[in-house]
Specification:
142 residues; alpha+beta; Aldehyde Oxidoreductase, domain 3; 3 helices; 38% strand; elongated
Length: 142
């Protein structure tokens, strides 16, 4: 089972390296990428400066593996990668990276939306919003 968690923000360099690794796979005709970024939301007059992500890694990886296998069964994909941050991710930084590849574009569009929605709805990853005044609250996914 693959560990999909990365400590801290997912960097542009990591994303670029992931793309570069697929240049030798000549059966791929389409890639689609979803990047989840931490917003500087205002909540009750306080501005979010970051989100601290936590989870029970073994359980979350297990659920992500199930989602991964079900996604491969539902869509004709060549490759699929999901990475999520743990720890503090500042506003403006990337916390979720979903990358799917297939022969044709229709598959990657549908698979990306399906995959992102399942990750957000089913995987027990918890975010604590950290505000400018150093107070915090647990984030509710929307």
């Amino acid at each position: 089972m693959k560990n999909v968690f990365i400590e801290g923000a997912i960097t542009p360099e990591f994303i670029a390296q992931s793309l570069a690794k697929h240049q030798t796979k000549h059966s791929i005709g389409a890639h689609n990428i979803f990047l989840g970024q931490v917003r500087a939301d205002e909540v009750d007059g306080q501005k979010v400066k970051g989100i601290e992500y936590t989870c029970y890694i073994e359980l979350a990886n297990s659920q992500l593996e199930t989602i991964r296998e079900e996604t491969f069964q539902k869509y004709k994909l060549t490759c699929m990668h999901v990475y999520h941050s743990l720890g503090l991710v500042e506003a403006g930084e990337v916390c979720l990276f979903v990358f799917v590849s297939a022969e044709r574009r229709k598959e990657v569009y549908a698979a990306t939306e399906y995959l992102v929605n399942r990750v957000k709805e089913e995987v027990p990853i918890f975010g604590k919003e950290i505000f400018d005044n150093e107070t915090h609250q647990w984030k509710v996914n929307q």
